[in-house]
Amino acid sequence: MSSIEDKLKGNWNVVKGKLKQEYAELNDDDLKFEEGQEDELIGRIQKKTGKAKEDVKSFIDSL
């Protein structure tokens, strides 16, 4: 299991708040998270923000 999966499962409300602060264009629908759906979540964030997958993962990893 990756550290990103751990962060998403363990501290989702905190991560969600930080993502909304960093990327104001994200809304609650963009940030719906279900366990095992990490790649879909990253994909939605990428599509909405135009950021690379690694940039999004690095941001989450840095939290």
Automatic annotation (TrEMBL):
CsbD-like domain residues: 6-58
Q: Which SUPFAM superfamilies match?
A: Hypothetical protein YjbJ (SSF69047)
InterPro entries in the record: CsbD (IPR008462), UPF0337_stress_rsp (IPR050423), YjbJ_sf (IPR036629)
Identify the Pfam families for this entry: CsbD (PF05532)
| PANTHER family membership | UPF0337 PROTEIN YJBJ
Family the UniProt entry places it in: Belongs to the UPF0337 (CsbD) family.
Q: Give the protein's recorded name.
A: CsbD-like domain-containing protein
UniProt organism field: Algoriphagus machipongonensis
